[in-house]
Design brief:
19 helices, 3-stranded antiparallel beta sheet, 429 residues, Cytochrome p450-Terp, domain 2, globular, binds carboxymethyl coenzyme *A, 52% helix, single chain
């Protein structure tokens, strides 16, 4: 039996039957509900798309109530434990895990596209000394479209593949150079003997040594953080990539729109806010006063709560475990003690339990990034590098989706109508 929804329009007394598919009705079916043929049909009003599905997708599954996150059906916990970031990238882009030869050639391709045109370097060097690295990243990814003009042939599968490889490969190079720029240090070229995460760390931190070898525990932690951030279905930046991509622009331009969205504090900036909060609390003795302030509505417990997860964010659990490995190398971040105490108290407190507020991905990630000597401005860059994989997988799915059209939401017009224009000379007389 097909499921349906019966709607009565009390303006006309007419009933309409709308088919339900996958728990949704088609917004287009509502357009048939109208008082007369000259009037527009019924639409929905949903700022922020909180209850509107914009696509069908087989990439990432989230069950926020149960705290489940899966990429292409594989639980995030298993991927973080046993896979590499490039294996996860292959999975997200291709929809299945690679066999040995597919994996080897994928890693080879990505590794040999890490270099950027020298003019990109010159271009990046032109930024002000104190340029925000995220602004530099956004501009340089957008600029790549001018180096690869053929990338606009988005329906050519082979062409699309090479552009995706280029973007995934070059993101660490651009991100690391944006970091070096702020420090006034020379840009370090990629080292193709190294793995994806090792090479990124080398481009960030190498000085005069012949070969930079990061501690394996740090490389592993970064690899895990990259896996956890690779995709998160239809969030603000992914929606930006899809919306801009729906105009059939090249993937560099679409991804730079995603970077722009991620730049905003409500999306990519929460882990920085967590650090500021922990510093403000200052000591374990002040935790309980802070929690009282939160419950009185004077403060927010940053790194807690999520629009989708109403349970422990599965990524937060994995990151919390990774902090041990990182701190074993870097020494314990003194703010950790405060974070652990905050979590302990909050998880037992009725205010947080009632509202289903649990730690999210950002609660511990800032502590790790700080321990790795990243300034807060770099945190969103560290998010954008792995998320590029998710953006590209979502973009490619969009390009192949016959249901998709150029994104063009409706509005409810609230302004004036049919005013008479009064020319300047009369208005100002
Ligand atoms: N501290 C204290 N109270 C909170 C918090 C918090 N962090 N989050 C939500 N609440 C309360 C809120 O005041 C409201 O209470 P009441 O019902 O009494 O008015 C209730 O919980 C529901 O909150 P909401 O604001 O309606 O929930 P939302 O889904 O709109 O907001 C959120 C989600 C993530 C914006 C919010 O929880 C928040 O501001 N958290 C802190 C910032 C943060 O950590 N952001 C990172 C999110 S993870 C990023 C990612 O996945 O990429």
């Amino acid at each position: 039996m097909t499921e349906s929804l019966t709607v009565r329009d009390n303006r006309t007394g007419r009933d309409y039957e709308l088919p339900i598919t996958d728990g949704t009705i088609r917004a287009g079916d509502l357009a048939a509900i109208r008082t007369d043929d000259d009037e527009p049909g019924i639409a929905t009003y949903d700022p922020g798309f909180t209850n509107t599905a914009s696509c069908r997708s087989s990439i990432t599954y989230i069950d926020g109530e149960k705290g489940i996150l899966e990429y292409r059906g594989y639980p995030i916990e298993q991927l973080a434990e046993d896979s590499t970031f490039l294996e996860v990238a292959y999975l997200l882009i291709h929809g299945e895990l690679p066999d040995r030869s597919a994996y080897d050639s994928w890693v080879h391709e990505i590794t040999y596209h890490t270099f950027v045109h020298e003019n990109v370097k010159t271009f990046m060097q032109g930024f002000r000394y104190d340029a925000h690295p995220m602004g530099m990243l956004m501009a340089s990814v957008g600029a790549l479209s001018t180096f690869y003009p053929e990338s606009r042939h988005i329906n050519d599968q082979q062409n699309r593949h090479i552009q995706m490889v280029r973007l995934i490969a070059k993101m660490p190079t651009l991100g690391a150079w944006a970091f070096r720029h702020a420090q006034g240090k020379p840009y370090v070229y990629p080292d193709n003997d190294l793995s994806y995460a090792e090479n990124f760390l080398a481009m960030l931190f190498k000085m005069s040594e012949q070969k930079f070898r990061a501690d394996e525990r740090l490389t592993k932690a970064l690899e895990i953080l990259f896996i956890l951030h690779a995709d998160h279905e239809q969030n603000c930046s992914t929606n930006a990539v899809r919306s801009v991509g729906s105009s059939q622009v090249d993937p560099y331009s679409a991804v730079s729109a995603g970077i722009a969205a991620l730049y905003g504090p409500l999306h990519g900036g929460a882990n920085e806010a967590v650090l500021r909060m922990l510093r403000r609390i200052g000591s374990v003795d002040n935790v309980s006063d802070y929690i009282t302030g939160v419950k009185n509505g004077d403060e927010r417990l940053m790194g807690f709560g999520h629009r989708v997860y109403k349970n422990y964010d599965p990524r937060a659990k994995i990151i919390k475990k990774a902090t041990d490995d990182v701190f074993a190398v870097t020494g314990v971040n003194p703010l950790l003690e405060i974070a652990l105490e905050l979590e302990k108290i909050a998880l037992e407190d009725e205010y947080f339990v009632e509202r289903k507020l649990y730690p999210n991905v950002d609660f511990y990630s800032g502590l790790i990034y700080e321990a790795l000597s990243f300034p807060p401005e770099m945190f969103t860059v560290l998010f954008a590098i792995p998320r590029t994989v998710g953006w590209l997988a979502q973009w490619a799915e969009l390009v192949d989706d016959k249901d998709q059209k150029i994104a063009r939401p409706k509005q409810i017009y609230t302004g004036d109508r049919t005013l008479d224009f009064n020319p300047r000379e009369k208005r100002w007389a």
